[in-house]
């Protein structure tokens, strides 16, 4: 359950610092950091650490809880408890964790679950993960053929299924089978790496390609995206390039044939086999007859009747900006929505009504010409990959 009893004063907010130094921190995360009583963080670089301390001097580094004589699980338990102790003291605690704070991060989920079970307000704000960076740098859309993400050791230990027809992303390929912690792992300690290659070769064959990917931490770096065959990854000079922050991307086997549900297609009224457009379909061309026709029509396009532009002036815009970026303002709003709206100047009656109601349809509609609630379908920007037409 996301909602929790507000009877207890302490609260916990978990945010992500992203991958790239400082620049991946969201406005929402920065606002949470600035307004916290105390910030507990585990981040990947000194620049982000200094930025957090600049935004909130009452910040503590949890990285010191790691130890080379400790199991990582014990460290994660301690990290969670370090934050929970302060929540129980009635403090507004913010935990900042590298990447997305809920993706391959154990202490955040533990702390949130315990805080909620004890009646404290607790939530997680999203951040950018290594996988998000991988999708951007390698030009991959996971929806094109589906995508499965595994932690490398988990894949092996639990015999997770591999679907060669979909994208596969593997985390922590540089520490296969490792449960301990070291401040400086070397590639020759990744002694179980060949077990991972054996599993991949079983599913894809030795000549299938794998992209070794490392997202850049600083703006001075470029992403690392090196393509090797599974067989090449067994070579010592290649294996030595695999680090603790390495991620593998395994593309689908192009030889895998698509299986259509013809009964379902018939029920949808589709009489032909769906196609996948360029660039997801390597056999498609970027400028075929259909694409050329669509581009020709672009010159004479006019906004359709259902399109509603943003109002040129709206007092509601400034109010929503404050509510998004200032937690104390949001607290005032939640205490009494009607009183909050009545105390504002420059809003129309429709905008006040939308603010009190607070749902996305009414608010989105109040910002657009016409003031009427927005159809939920218009709020979803769906870029469909599979062509059914």
Task: Describe the fold and architecture.
The chain is of the alpha/beta class and 389 residues long. It is built from 15 helices and ten strands. It folds into four domains: 11-128, Tetrapyrrole methylase, N-terminal domain (Cobalt-precorrin-4 Transmethylase, domain 1, 3-Layer(aba) Sandwich), CATH 3.40.1010; 131-250, Tetrapyrrole methylase, C-terminal domain (Methyltransferase, Cobalt-precorrin-4 Transmethylase, Domain 2), CATH 3.30.950.10; 262-298, no CATH class; 315-379, no CATH class. It has helices at residues 27-34, 46-55, 72-88, 106-117, 130-138, 152-157, 193-204, 236-239, 262-267, 289-298, 315-325, 327-335, 337-342, 349-357, 360-366, and strands spanning 11-16, 38-42, 59-61, 92-97, 121-124, 147-151, 167-171, 209-214, 224-229, 247-250. It has a five-stranded parallel beta sheet with strand order 3-2-4-1-5, sandwiched between helices. The chain has a five-stranded mixed beta sheet with strand order 6-7-10-8-9. The radius of gyration is 25 Å and the shape is flat.
Gist of the model:
By secondary structure, this protein is α/β, with parallel strands linked by helices. Helix content is 35%, strand content 13%.
Q: What is the rounded distance between the termini?
A: 40 Å
* Shape call: flat
Helicity level, as a percent range?
Answer: 25-40%
- What is the typical, i.e. mean, pLDDT? 86
Write down the secondary-structure element order. Answer: EHEHEHEHEHEHEHEEHEHHHHHHH
CATH architecture of the largest domain: 2-Layer Sandwich
Give me the CATH fold name of the largest domain. Answer: Methyltransferase, Cobalt-precorrin-4 Transmethylase, Domain 2
GO molecular function: methyltransferase activity
Organism: Coprinellus micaceus (Glistening ink-cap mushroom)
Pathway: Secondary metabolite biosynthesis
Region (Methyltransferase domain): 1-253
